Amino acid sequence: MIIKTANLNLYYDKFQALKNVNLSIKENLITGIIGPSGCGKSTLLRVFNRMNDLIKNVKITGSILIDKKDIYSPVYDLILLRKNVGMVFQRPNAFPISIFDNVAYGPRVWGISDKKTLIEIVERSLAAVDLFDSIKDRLKDSALSLSAEKKQRLCIARLLAVEPQILLMDEPCSALDPIATGKIEELMIELKKKYTIIIVTHNMQQAARIADDVGFMLLGELIEFASAKKIFTNPLDKRTFEYISGRFG
Amino acid sequence: MTFRIGPRTNQIIAYSILLLMTLITVVVLFFIIGYVFKNGIGQLSLEFLTDKTRDMGKEGGILPSILGTFFVTIFAIIIATPLGVGSAVYLVEYTKGGLIHRIISFGADCLAGVPSIIFGLFGFIFFVIKLNLGWSIISGGLTLAVMIIPTIIRTTEEAIKAVPHSFREISYSLGGGKLDTILKVVLPTSLPGILTGVILGIGRAVGETAAVIFTAGSSLGIPTSAFSSTRTLAVHFYILAREGISMPKAYATATVLIIIILLVNFIAYRLMHRFMAKYY
Predict the structure, then answer these.
(1) In this complex, which of B168, B180, B280 lies closest to A144 when CB atoms are compared?
(2) Beta-strand relationship, A166-170 and A196-200
(3) Is residue A128, in this structure, part of any structural domain at all?
Protein backbone atom coordinates (compact mmCIF):
# COMPACT_ATOMS: atom_id res chain seq x y z
CA MET A 1 0.00 0.00 0.00
CA ILE A 2 1.79 3.08 -1.19
CA ILE A 3 -0.82 5.83 -0.72
CA LYS A 4 -3.35 5.87 2.08
CA THR A 5 -5.77 8.61 3.05
CA ALA A 6 -7.76 8.71 6.26
CA ASN A 7 -10.73 11.00 6.91
CA LEU A 8 -9.51 13.38 4.24
CA ASN A 9 -11.52 16.59 3.99
CA LEU A 10 -10.69 19.54 1.76
CA TYR A 11 -12.29 22.97 1.74
CA TYR A 12 -11.99 25.79 -0.78
CA ASP A 13 -12.97 28.62 1.57
CA LYS A 14 -16.35 27.42 2.81
CA PHE A 15 -17.00 24.96 -0.01
CA GLN A 16 -16.20 21.39 0.92
CA ALA A 17 -14.69 19.71 -2.14
CA LEU A 18 -13.66 16.42 -0.53
CA LYS A 19 -15.70 14.70 2.17
CA ASN A 20 -14.16 12.11 4.44
CA VAL A 21 -12.22 10.25 1.76
CA ASN A 22 -10.60 6.96 2.84
CA LEU A 23 -8.68 4.96 0.28
CA SER A 24 -5.62 2.82 -0.22
CA ILE A 25 -3.74 2.78 -3.48
CA LYS A 26 -1.53 -0.19 -4.25
CA GLU A 27 1.89 -0.22 -5.80
CA ASN A 28 2.43 -0.90 -9.51
CA LEU A 29 -1.25 -0.82 -10.35
CA ILE A 30 -3.32 1.64 -12.34
CA THR A 31 -5.96 3.17 -10.11
CA GLY A 32 -8.75 4.97 -11.95
CA ILE A 33 -10.84 7.68 -10.35
CA ILE A 34 -14.15 8.22 -12.10
CA GLY A 35 -17.17 10.41 -11.51
CA PRO A 36 -19.12 13.28 -13.05
CA SER A 37 -17.55 16.73 -13.51
CA GLY A 38 -17.13 18.65 -10.31
CA CYS A 39 -17.15 15.55 -8.12
CA GLY A 40 -13.70 16.35 -6.74
CA LYS A 41 -11.64 13.76 -8.60
CA SER A 42 -9.05 16.26 -9.85
CA THR A 43 -8.95 17.88 -6.43
CA LEU A 44 -8.22 14.49 -4.89
CA LEU A 45 -5.44 13.86 -7.39
CA ARG A 46 -3.90 17.25 -6.62
CA VAL A 47 -3.80 16.39 -2.93
CA PHE A 48 -1.19 13.72 -3.60
CA ASN A 49 1.47 16.13 -4.91
CA ARG A 50 0.19 19.09 -2.91
CA MET A 51 -0.65 21.03 -6.06
CA ASN A 52 -3.57 22.54 -4.16
CA ASP A 53 -1.02 24.48 -2.12
CA LEU A 54 -0.84 26.92 -5.03
CA ILE A 55 -4.47 27.91 -4.50
CA LYS A 56 -5.36 30.39 -1.77
CA ASN A 57 -7.64 29.50 1.14
CA VAL A 58 -7.42 25.74 0.82
CA LYS A 59 -7.85 23.87 4.07
CA ILE A 60 -7.14 20.16 4.44
CA THR A 61 -7.93 17.90 7.41
CA GLY A 62 -7.25 14.20 7.87
CA SER A 63 -4.10 12.41 6.81
CA ILE A 64 -2.48 11.44 3.55
CA LEU A 65 0.32 8.93 3.88
CA ILE A 66 2.72 8.06 1.10
CA ASP A 67 5.07 5.24 2.04
CA LYS A 68 3.74 5.63 5.59
CA LYS A 69 4.84 9.25 5.85
CA ASP A 70 2.39 12.13 6.25
CA ILE A 71 3.01 14.35 3.23
CA TYR A 72 1.29 17.34 4.85
CA SER A 73 3.47 17.24 7.95
CA PRO A 74 5.52 20.43 8.30
CA VAL A 75 8.81 18.50 8.21
CA TYR A 76 7.98 16.75 4.92
CA ASP A 77 10.13 17.93 2.01
CA LEU A 78 7.64 19.38 -0.48
CA ILE A 79 10.13 19.57 -3.33
CA LEU A 80 11.07 15.92 -2.85
CA LEU A 81 7.38 15.01 -2.81
CA ARG A 82 6.88 16.72 -6.16
CA LYS A 83 9.86 14.80 -7.53
CA ASN A 84 8.52 11.46 -6.32
CA VAL A 85 4.95 12.13 -7.29
CA GLY A 86 4.83 13.40 -10.85
CA MET A 87 1.85 14.78 -12.68
CA VAL A 88 0.59 14.60 -16.26
CA PHE A 89 -1.90 17.31 -17.09
CA GLN A 90 -4.99 17.40 -19.25
CA ARG A 91 -3.48 19.49 -22.02
CA PRO A 92 -0.22 18.28 -23.54
CA ASN A 93 1.55 21.44 -22.40
CA ALA A 94 5.06 21.37 -23.74
CA PHE A 95 7.20 24.38 -22.92
CA PRO A 96 7.93 26.55 -25.96
CA ILE A 97 11.57 25.44 -25.96
CA SER A 98 13.35 22.59 -27.72
CA ILE A 99 12.37 18.95 -27.25
CA PHE A 100 15.67 18.28 -25.52
CA ASP A 101 15.30 21.21 -23.13
CA ASN A 102 11.77 20.15 -22.26
CA VAL A 103 12.93 16.74 -21.06
CA ALA A 104 16.06 18.17 -19.48
CA TYR A 105 14.06 20.76 -17.54
CA GLY A 106 13.46 18.61 -14.47
CA PRO A 107 17.00 17.19 -14.20
CA ARG A 108 18.43 20.69 -14.60
CA VAL A 109 16.20 21.95 -11.80
CA TRP A 110 17.65 19.11 -9.76
CA GLY A 111 21.11 20.43 -10.43
CA ILE A 112 22.36 18.10 -13.16
CA SER A 113 24.38 20.16 -15.61
CA ASP A 114 26.78 17.60 -17.02
CA LYS A 115 26.06 17.41 -20.73
CA LYS A 116 26.67 13.66 -21.04
CA THR A 117 24.44 12.79 -18.12
CA LEU A 118 21.68 15.03 -19.48
CA ILE A 119 21.85 13.45 -22.93
CA GLU A 120 21.66 10.03 -21.33
CA ILE A 121 18.61 10.98 -19.22
CA VAL A 122 16.82 12.60 -22.15
CA GLU A 123 17.41 9.61 -24.41
CA ARG A 124 16.33 7.14 -21.75
CA SER A 125 13.18 9.12 -20.90
CA LEU A 126 12.17 9.54 -24.54
CA ALA A 127 12.80 5.85 -25.17
CA ALA A 128 10.58 4.95 -22.22
CA VAL A 129 7.63 6.63 -23.93
CA ASP A 130 8.50 5.21 -27.39
CA LEU A 131 9.34 8.62 -28.76
CA PHE A 132 13.09 8.47 -29.13
CA ASP A 133 13.35 6.60 -32.44
CA SER A 134 10.92 8.85 -34.27
CA ILE A 135 12.38 12.17 -33.13
CA LYS A 136 16.03 11.49 -32.38
CA ASP A 137 17.17 13.77 -35.21
CA ARG A 138 14.88 16.61 -34.12
CA LEU A 139 15.81 17.04 -30.48
CA LYS A 140 16.78 20.66 -31.10
CA ASP A 141 13.45 21.50 -32.76
CA SER A 142 10.70 23.30 -30.89
CA ALA A 143 8.54 20.96 -28.84
CA LEU A 144 5.52 22.79 -30.23
CA SER A 145 6.17 21.25 -33.65
CA LEU A 146 5.05 17.82 -32.39
CA SER A 147 1.56 16.36 -32.80
CA ALA A 148 -0.77 16.36 -29.77
CA GLU A 149 -0.11 12.69 -29.04
CA LYS A 150 3.65 13.08 -29.29
CA LYS A 151 3.46 16.19 -27.13
CA GLN A 152 1.65 14.24 -24.43
CA ARG A 153 4.31 11.51 -24.72
CA LEU A 154 6.93 14.23 -24.39
CA CYS A 155 5.20 15.55 -21.27
CA ILE A 156 5.30 12.05 -19.78
CA ALA A 157 8.99 11.72 -20.74
CA ARG A 158 9.69 15.10 -19.12
CA LEU A 159 8.14 13.69 -15.98
CA LEU A 160 10.00 10.36 -16.09
CA ALA A 161 13.27 12.29 -16.37
CA VAL A 162 13.06 13.25 -12.69
CA GLU A 163 12.55 9.57 -11.76
CA PRO A 164 9.25 9.69 -9.90
CA GLN A 165 7.62 6.67 -8.26
CA ILE A 166 4.01 7.68 -8.62
CA LEU A 167 2.42 9.16 -11.74
CA LEU A 168 -0.72 11.25 -11.35
CA MET A 169 -2.63 11.65 -14.59
CA ASP A 170 -5.38 14.21 -14.83
CA GLU A 171 -7.48 13.25 -17.88
CA PRO A 172 -4.32 12.78 -19.94
CA CYS A 173 -6.21 11.80 -23.10
CA SER A 174 -9.02 14.33 -23.12
CA ALA A 175 -7.27 16.49 -25.72
CA LEU A 176 -6.39 13.51 -27.96
CA ASP A 177 -8.22 11.64 -30.72
CA PRO A 178 -9.24 7.98 -30.23
CA ILE A 179 -6.19 6.50 -31.99
CA ALA A 180 -3.76 8.64 -29.98
CA THR A 181 -5.74 7.79 -26.83
CA GLY A 182 -5.29 4.08 -27.55
CA LYS A 183 -1.55 4.54 -27.91
CA ILE A 184 -1.22 6.52 -24.68
CA GLU A 185 -3.25 3.82 -22.90
CA GLU A 186 -0.86 1.15 -24.16
CA LEU A 187 1.97 3.28 -22.84
CA MET A 188 0.33 3.51 -19.42
CA ILE A 189 -0.01 -0.26 -19.20
CA GLU A 190 3.67 -0.50 -20.11
CA LEU A 191 4.60 2.09 -17.48
CA LYS A 192 2.78 0.43 -14.62
CA LYS A 193 5.52 -2.19 -14.45
CA LYS A 194 7.76 0.47 -12.97
CA TYR A 195 5.39 3.11 -11.62
CA THR A 196 2.25 3.41 -9.57
CA ILE A 197 -0.32 5.23 -11.68
CA ILE A 198 -3.42 7.11 -10.61
CA ILE A 199 -5.58 8.35 -13.45
CA VAL A 200 -8.55 10.67 -13.26
CA THR A 201 -10.90 10.21 -16.16
CA HIS A 202 -14.45 11.08 -17.11
CA ASN A 203 -14.26 8.28 -19.66
CA MET A 204 -15.60 5.09 -18.06
CA GLN A 205 -14.52 2.90 -20.96
CA GLN A 206 -11.00 4.13 -20.46
CA ALA A 207 -11.09 3.21 -16.79
CA ALA A 208 -12.53 -0.20 -17.68
CA ARG A 209 -9.79 -0.78 -20.27
CA ILE A 210 -6.74 0.09 -18.24
CA ALA A 211 -7.48 0.41 -14.51
CA ASP A 212 -6.91 -2.33 -11.97
CA ASP A 213 -8.69 -0.57 -9.13
CA VAL A 214 -11.40 2.02 -9.58
CA GLY A 215 -12.84 4.63 -7.23
CA PHE A 216 -16.16 6.27 -7.96
CA MET A 217 -16.67 9.79 -6.62
CA LEU A 218 -19.78 11.89 -6.31
CA LEU A 219 -20.11 15.39 -4.82
CA GLY A 220 -16.80 15.10 -2.99
CA GLU A 221 -17.43 11.68 -1.53
CA LEU A 222 -15.69 8.45 -2.46
CA ILE A 223 -18.77 6.32 -2.95
CA GLU A 224 -17.09 3.05 -3.79
CA PHE A 225 -13.56 1.79 -4.22
CA ALA A 226 -12.87 -1.72 -5.50
CA SER A 227 -11.27 -3.69 -8.32
CA ALA A 228 -12.28 -2.50 -11.79
CA LYS A 229 -13.95 -5.81 -12.45
CA LYS A 230 -16.13 -5.49 -9.41
CA ILE A 231 -17.05 -1.85 -10.01
CA PHE A 232 -18.06 -2.43 -13.60
CA THR A 233 -19.84 -5.77 -13.20
CA ASN A 234 -21.15 -5.90 -9.68
CA PRO A 235 -21.08 -2.52 -7.88
CA LEU A 236 -22.32 -2.48 -4.31
CA ASP A 237 -23.71 1.03 -4.28
CA LYS A 238 -26.83 1.97 -6.21
CA ARG A 239 -25.28 5.32 -7.26
CA THR A 240 -22.22 3.59 -8.74
CA PHE A 241 -24.50 1.34 -10.73
CA GLU A 242 -26.55 4.27 -11.97
CA TYR A 243 -23.42 6.18 -13.02
CA ILE A 244 -21.73 3.33 -14.86
CA SER A 245 -24.95 2.44 -16.62
CA GLY A 246 -25.20 6.02 -17.85
CA ARG A 247 -28.19 7.24 -15.84
CA PHE A 248 -26.38 10.48 -14.99
CA GLY A 249 -23.03 12.20 -15.32
CA MET B 1 -41.59 59.13 -40.84
CA THR B 2 -38.27 57.72 -39.86
CA PHE B 3 -35.45 57.43 -42.31
CA ARG B 4 -33.90 53.97 -42.37
CA ILE B 5 -30.63 52.86 -43.87
CA GLY B 6 -30.56 49.28 -45.11
CA PRO B 7 -28.14 46.93 -43.36
CA ARG B 8 -26.06 46.60 -46.49
CA THR B 9 -25.67 50.37 -46.94
CA ASN B 10 -24.95 50.58 -43.25
CA GLN B 11 -22.02 48.20 -43.66
CA ILE B 12 -20.64 50.14 -46.59
CA ILE B 13 -20.80 53.42 -44.69
CA ALA B 14 -19.12 51.96 -41.60
CA TYR B 15 -16.44 50.35 -43.74
CA SER B 16 -15.78 53.58 -45.65
CA ILE B 17 -15.49 55.66 -42.46
CA LEU B 18 -13.07 53.21 -40.86
CA LEU B 19 -11.01 52.98 -44.05
CA LEU B 20 -10.89 56.78 -44.27
CA MET B 21 -9.67 57.05 -40.67
CA THR B 22 -6.92 54.54 -41.35
CA LEU B 23 -5.92 56.30 -44.54
CA ILE B 24 -5.69 59.70 -42.82
CA THR B 25 -3.43 58.22 -40.11
CA VAL B 26 -1.16 56.49 -42.60
CA VAL B 27 -1.02 59.45 -44.97
CA VAL B 28 -0.04 61.85 -42.18
CA LEU B 29 2.72 59.50 -41.06
CA PHE B 30 4.06 58.99 -44.57
CA PHE B 31 3.80 62.70 -45.32
CA ILE B 32 5.98 63.56 -42.31
CA ILE B 33 8.58 60.92 -43.09
CA GLY B 34 8.47 61.75 -46.82
CA TYR B 35 8.82 65.48 -46.19
CA VAL B 36 11.82 65.05 -43.90
CA PHE B 37 13.44 62.59 -46.31
CA LYS B 38 12.82 64.84 -49.30
CA ASN B 39 14.63 67.71 -47.61
CA GLY B 40 17.29 65.67 -45.93
CA ILE B 41 18.28 62.73 -48.08
CA GLY B 42 20.16 64.91 -50.59
CA GLN B 43 22.47 66.14 -47.82
CA LEU B 44 23.45 62.67 -46.69
CA SER B 45 26.89 61.39 -47.47
CA LEU B 46 29.51 59.23 -45.85
CA GLU B 47 31.35 62.39 -44.75
CA PHE B 48 28.22 63.67 -43.03
CA LEU B 49 28.01 60.48 -40.98
CA THR B 50 31.73 60.19 -40.18
CA ASP B 51 32.91 63.77 -39.91
CA LYS B 52 33.28 65.95 -36.84
CA THR B 53 30.80 68.79 -36.43
CA ARG B 54 32.30 72.16 -37.37
CA ASP B 55 31.18 75.76 -37.01
CA MET B 56 28.31 74.92 -34.62
CA GLY B 57 26.84 72.51 -37.14
CA LYS B 58 26.86 74.74 -40.22
CA GLU B 59 29.66 72.62 -41.60
CA GLY B 60 30.94 69.11 -41.15
CA GLY B 61 29.11 65.97 -40.06
CA ILE B 62 27.31 64.55 -37.08
CA LEU B 63 29.63 61.82 -35.83
CA PRO B 64 29.75 63.21 -32.24
CA SER B 65 25.96 63.24 -32.06
CA ILE B 66 25.64 59.72 -33.45
CA LEU B 67 28.10 58.48 -30.82
CA GLY B 68 26.39 60.53 -28.10
CA THR B 69 22.96 59.14 -28.98
CA PHE B 70 24.34 55.63 -29.05
CA PHE B 71 26.07 55.85 -25.67
CA VAL B 72 23.25 57.65 -23.85
CA THR B 73 20.68 55.16 -25.17
CA ILE B 74 22.79 52.09 -24.39
CA PHE B 75 23.43 53.41 -20.90
CA ALA B 76 19.72 54.04 -20.33
CA ILE B 77 18.73 50.58 -21.59
CA ILE B 78 21.39 48.79 -19.54
CA ILE B 79 20.10 50.50 -16.40
CA ALA B 80 16.38 50.38 -17.19
CA THR B 81 15.99 46.82 -18.48
CA PRO B 82 17.04 44.89 -15.36
CA LEU B 83 15.22 47.33 -13.06
CA GLY B 84 12.04 47.30 -15.13
CA VAL B 85 12.00 43.53 -15.69
CA GLY B 86 12.86 42.87 -12.05
CA SER B 87 10.08 45.13 -10.81
CA ALA B 88 7.58 43.52 -13.17
CA VAL B 89 8.54 40.01 -11.99
CA TYR B 90 8.20 41.11 -8.38
CA LEU B 91 4.82 42.71 -9.02
CA VAL B 92 3.30 39.81 -10.92
CA GLU B 93 4.88 36.82 -9.22
CA TYR B 94 5.24 37.97 -5.63
CA THR B 95 2.54 40.55 -4.90
CA LYS B 96 -0.11 39.42 -7.35
CA GLY B 97 -3.19 41.60 -7.16
CA GLY B 98 -2.36 42.93 -3.70
CA LEU B 99 -2.49 46.54 -2.57
CA ILE B 100 1.25 47.01 -3.19
CA HIS B 101 0.85 45.81 -6.77
CA ARG B 102 -1.99 48.23 -7.44
CA ILE B 103 -0.20 51.19 -5.89
CA ILE B 104 3.03 50.54 -7.83
CA SER B 105 1.18 49.90 -11.10
CA PHE B 106 -0.75 53.12 -10.64
CA GLY B 107 2.51 54.92 -9.95
CA ALA B 108 4.14 53.44 -13.05
CA ASP B 109 1.18 54.50 -15.19
CA CYS B 110 1.35 58.03 -13.85
CA LEU B 111 5.10 58.12 -14.36
CA ALA B 112 4.65 57.03 -18.00
CA GLY B 113 2.38 60.02 -18.55
CA VAL B 114 4.68 62.64 -17.03
CA PRO B 115 6.01 65.08 -19.69
CA SER B 116 9.64 64.37 -20.49
CA ILE B 117 10.73 67.90 -19.64
CA ILE B 118 9.82 67.17 -16.02
CA PHE B 119 12.22 64.21 -16.14
CA GLY B 120 14.78 66.56 -17.66
CA LEU B 121 14.35 68.99 -14.80
CA PHE B 122 14.53 66.22 -12.24
CA GLY B 123 17.66 64.79 -13.90
CA PHE B 124 19.25 68.23 -13.94
CA ILE B 125 18.56 68.91 -10.26
CA PHE B 126 19.31 65.41 -8.99
CA PHE B 127 21.94 63.80 -11.22
CA VAL B 128 23.69 66.85 -12.66
CA ILE B 129 23.77 69.10 -9.59
CA LYS B 130 23.01 67.07 -6.45
CA LEU B 131 25.06 64.00 -7.37
CA ASN B 132 27.52 66.26 -9.14
CA LEU B 133 27.67 64.11 -12.26
CA GLY B 134 27.60 67.19 -14.44
CA TRP B 135 26.24 67.35 -17.98
CA SER B 136 27.30 63.91 -19.04
CA ILE B 137 26.41 60.64 -20.72
CA ILE B 138 25.82 59.19 -17.25
CA SER B 139 23.36 61.91 -16.25
CA GLY B 140 21.52 61.69 -19.57
CA GLY B 141 21.43 57.89 -19.48
CA LEU B 142 20.17 57.78 -15.91
CA THR B 143 17.45 60.32 -16.65
CA LEU B 144 16.31 58.42 -19.73
CA ALA B 145 16.39 55.20 -17.71
CA VAL B 146 14.03 56.70 -15.12
CA MET B 147 11.81 57.81 -17.97
CA ILE B 148 11.57 54.46 -19.77
CA ILE B 149 11.38 52.18 -16.74
CA PRO B 150 7.56 52.53 -16.52
CA THR B 151 7.22 51.44 -20.17
CA ILE B 152 9.39 48.38 -19.58
CA ILE B 153 7.55 47.50 -16.35
CA ARG B 154 4.15 47.70 -18.03
CA THR B 155 5.01 45.68 -21.15
CA THR B 156 6.91 43.07 -19.12
CA GLU B 157 4.01 42.81 -16.70
CA GLU B 158 1.59 42.08 -19.52
CA ALA B 159 3.99 39.57 -21.08
CA ILE B 160 4.46 37.72 -17.80
CA LYS B 161 0.74 37.67 -17.12
CA ALA B 162 0.23 36.09 -20.55
CA VAL B 163 2.37 33.05 -19.64
CA PRO B 164 -0.13 30.21 -19.15
CA HIS B 165 -0.67 29.24 -15.52
CA SER B 166 -0.23 25.60 -16.55
CA PHE B 167 3.45 26.26 -17.38
CA ARG B 168 4.02 27.30 -13.78
CA GLU B 169 2.12 24.24 -12.52
CA ILE B 170 4.23 21.92 -14.66
CA SER B 171 7.41 23.48 -13.35
CA TYR B 172 6.25 23.10 -9.74
CA SER B 173 5.08 19.55 -10.41
CA LEU B 174 8.59 18.64 -11.56
CA GLY B 175 10.00 19.88 -8.29
CA GLY B 176 10.96 23.32 -9.53
CA GLY B 177 10.99 26.14 -6.99
CA LYS B 178 9.63 29.60 -7.57
CA LEU B 179 12.98 30.95 -8.77
CA ASP B 180 13.52 28.05 -11.21
CA THR B 181 10.04 28.63 -12.55
CA ILE B 182 10.59 32.34 -13.06
CA LEU B 183 14.08 32.08 -14.57
CA LYS B 184 13.61 29.00 -16.72
CA VAL B 185 9.95 29.12 -17.72
CA VAL B 186 8.29 32.47 -17.14
CA LEU B 187 11.00 34.82 -18.43
CA PRO B 188 12.00 32.83 -21.54
CA THR B 189 8.35 32.41 -22.50
CA SER B 190 7.65 36.11 -22.11
CA LEU B 191 10.86 37.21 -23.85
CA PRO B 192 9.16 38.51 -27.02
CA GLY B 193 6.90 40.74 -24.93
CA ILE B 194 9.80 41.97 -22.83
CA LEU B 195 11.78 42.78 -25.98
CA THR B 196 8.86 44.82 -27.27
CA GLY B 197 9.05 46.93 -24.13
CA VAL B 198 12.80 47.38 -24.51
CA ILE B 199 12.38 48.42 -28.16
CA LEU B 200 9.73 50.96 -27.22
CA GLY B 201 12.17 52.21 -24.60
CA ILE B 202 14.98 52.53 -27.15
CA GLY B 203 12.63 54.41 -29.45
CA ARG B 204 11.72 56.88 -26.72
CA ALA B 205 15.35 57.31 -25.66
CA VAL B 206 16.69 57.89 -29.16
CA GLY B 207 14.04 60.46 -30.01
CA GLU B 208 14.08 62.31 -26.69
CA THR B 209 15.16 65.97 -26.51
CA ALA B 210 13.76 67.67 -23.43
CA ALA B 211 15.04 65.11 -20.94
CA VAL B 212 18.58 65.00 -22.36
CA ILE B 213 19.19 68.62 -23.21
CA PHE B 214 19.24 69.42 -19.45
CA THR B 215 21.22 66.36 -18.44
CA ALA B 216 23.60 65.27 -21.22
CA GLY B 217 24.22 68.84 -22.31
CA SER B 218 24.90 69.96 -25.84
CA SER B 219 28.65 69.71 -26.27
CA LEU B 220 29.80 68.98 -29.79
CA GLY B 221 33.02 67.21 -28.90
CA ILE B 222 33.47 63.51 -29.49
CA PRO B 223 32.66 61.82 -26.14
CA THR B 224 35.75 60.37 -24.49
CA SER B 225 34.30 58.97 -21.26
CA ALA B 226 31.01 58.38 -19.47
CA PHE B 227 31.47 61.80 -17.88
CA SER B 228 31.74 63.65 -21.22
CA SER B 229 28.97 66.04 -22.07
CA THR B 230 27.39 65.17 -25.38
CA ARG B 231 24.69 66.29 -27.79
CA THR B 232 22.29 63.62 -29.03
CA LEU B 233 20.93 63.66 -32.58
CA ALA B 234 17.52 64.86 -31.49
CA VAL B 235 19.05 67.72 -29.50
CA HIS B 236 21.40 68.57 -32.36
CA PHE B 237 18.46 68.74 -34.73
CA TYR B 238 16.52 70.90 -32.29
CA ILE B 239 19.39 73.36 -31.88
CA LEU B 240 20.16 73.54 -35.62
CA ALA B 241 16.54 74.35 -36.39
CA ARG B 242 15.77 76.52 -33.35
CA GLU B 243 18.85 78.69 -33.67
CA GLY B 244 18.50 78.85 -37.45
CA ILE B 245 22.04 77.55 -37.90
CA SER B 246 21.41 75.42 -40.97
CA MET B 247 18.09 74.03 -42.10
CA PRO B 248 19.62 71.62 -44.66
CA LYS B 249 21.84 70.11 -41.92
CA ALA B 250 18.83 69.98 -39.60
CA TYR B 251 16.82 67.97 -42.12
CA ALA B 252 19.78 65.72 -42.80
CA THR B 253 20.09 65.05 -39.05
CA ALA B 254 16.36 64.35 -38.81
CA THR B 255 16.65 61.91 -41.70
CA VAL B 256 19.45 60.03 -39.94
CA LEU B 257 17.37 59.97 -36.75
CA ILE B 258 14.36 58.52 -38.53
CA ILE B 259 16.48 55.94 -40.33
CA ILE B 260 18.03 54.85 -37.01
CA ILE B 261 14.62 54.45 -35.39
CA LEU B 262 13.32 52.50 -38.40
CA LEU B 263 16.42 50.29 -38.32
CA VAL B 264 16.12 49.59 -34.59
CA ASN B 265 12.50 48.57 -35.03
CA PHE B 266 13.23 46.53 -38.13
CA ILE B 267 16.14 44.61 -36.57
CA ALA B 268 14.26 44.05 -33.34
CA TYR B 269 11.20 42.68 -35.10
CA ARG B 270 13.38 40.44 -37.28
CA LEU B 271 15.06 39.07 -34.17
CA MET B 272 11.75 38.54 -32.46
CA HIS B 273 10.30 36.92 -35.53
CA ARG B 274 13.21 34.50 -35.76
CA PHE B 275 12.86 33.69 -32.09
CA MET B 276 9.11 33.14 -32.44
CA ALA B 277 9.51 31.07 -35.60
CA LYS B 278 11.94 28.82 -33.80
CA TYR B 279 9.85 28.03 -30.79
CA TYR B 280 6.21 29.00 -31.40
Answers:
(1) B280
(2) parallel
(3) no
* Rounded distance between C-alpha atoms, residue A116 and residue A198, angstroms: 33
**Do B174 and A109 count as a contact with CB atoms less than 8 A apart?**
yes
**pLDDT grade, residue B177 (50/70/90)?**
confident
A246: closest CA of chain B, how far (Å): 32
Chain A nearest-CA distance from B87, in A, is 22
Radius of gyration for chain B, computed over Cα atoms and rounded to the nearest angstrom? 23
CB contact under 8 A, A96 and B189: yes
pTM of the shown model: 0.80
List Cα–Cα distances, A60 to A25, A43, A155, in angstroms.
19, 11, 29
The answer to whether the CB atoms of A142 and B167 lie below 8 A apart is: no
From chain B, the residues in CB contact with A105 under 8 A are: 171, 174, 176, 184-185
Q: Which of residues A79 and B81 earns the better pLDDT score?
A: B81
CATH code, domain carrying A182: 3.40.50.300
What is the ipTM for the molecules in this complex? 0.85
What's the number of domains chain A is made of? 1
Mutate to test the interface with B, among A95, A110, A121 (most CBs of B within 10 A): A95
Domain boundaries along the sequence of chain B: 7-43, 47-279
CATH of domain B47-279: 1.10.3720.10
Do β-strands A85-88 and A213-218 pair in parallel, antiparallel, or remain unpaired? unpaired
**pLDDT, average across residues B244-259:** 92
